[in-house]
Amino acid sequence: MPVWVELVLRVLAVVAAFLTLPLLIGQTEHKVMAHMQGRLGPMYAGAFHGWAQLIADGVKFVQKEDVTPREADRPVFRLAPVVALLPYLVVLLVIPLGPSGLVAQPLDIGLFFVLSVVGVGVVSVLMAAWASANKYALLGGLRAAAQLLGYELPFVLAAASVAMAAGTLSLPGIVEAWRPWWLLWQFPAMVIFFVAGLAEIRRPPFDMPIADSELVFGYMTEYTGLRFAFFVLAEYVGILVIGALTTVLFLGGWKGPFGLDAELGWLWTLIKVAAVSFVIIWFRVAYPRLREDQLQRLCWLVLVPLALAQLVLTVAVKVAL
Fold first, then answer.
1. Signal peptide position in this chain (predicted)?
2. Per-residue pLDDT tens for 15-30?
3. Residue 98's beta-bridge partner residues?
């Protein structure tokens, strides 16, 4: 098979996953939240437990009127939802699904690339906030900027810990170097990475940039129709990306029991990503939204010192071994 044909097929596979897996996560969130809160949830769209609810929501968004505020910066306003989605699509290209080259584009500096691209998400939020010409949107954007710039530090430090332990920045290389006992000594880094990742994708309890009880809907206040749907899709793709990165960096990626990594590696990866995504949904139901001062205190007085201590521990273990 020609190289370019193989590359096109890999990219198409990633795009298919980009369009389908977030919908599965969104539908799971509907049902999981409903059961945790003792209610039915959406039941009518689709013959079995409302399985087609997200498809129905998508059709509804397409039919809604696309409104742009009169005072908005129209080009920036319209481009912001696309900028929110694209970084996650690019990140999925370098996350390995299994061994034997099951990755769209392997990179020797894959972790560095992923951390750089994920940080672009704050740009879309600032674009939407500024271009909306709305005070609530602007306040949401300022909150998002402070939140994302703050939590980027523990997010990167935690990832640096596992990269230092593996001795490589390659995501498949980190999975190859991973050992089960890493679940113990890299556990603090995993918790830090997971919590900071929730803040990066602005999921509850870190959804202060939206804070519907305070800011209407934050930086998304003026968005309607398909553009609003793009922001919602970006949130679900963010769950997928954080789940996949947590799996690859801290949970062994495609490694599983019974010595069937070569045959079922892709399945172990998907199971672990699904488990991490479930925990992200669980956090939304279990914890109330933090205040802005609590958010910053958690970042600078808890996560950053713990991430630095984890780096020292990793250095000590590497030197000792």
1. none
2. 888 888 888 888 888 8
3. 102
C-beta contacts of 251-260 below 8 A and 24+ residues apart: 251/183, 251/190, 251/276, 252/175, 252/178, 252/180, 252/182, 253/96, 253/171, 253/172, 253/174, 253/175, 253/178, 254/96, 254/97, 254/98, 254/99, 254/102, 254/175, 255/175, 255/178
The pTM is what? 0.91
Q: Is 68 helix (H, G, I), strand (E, B) or coil?
A: coil
Local structure of 219: helix, strand or coil? helix
Residue type, 136: Y
Per-residue H/E/C for 93-110: CCCCCECCCECCCCCCCH
Backbone angles phi, psi at 296, to 5 degrees: -70, -35
* Cis peptide, bond prior to residue 106, ω within 30 of zero: no
Give per-residue pLDDT as tens, 54-113.
Answer: 788 888 888 888 888 888 888 888 899 888 888 898 898 889 887 866 777 788 888 999
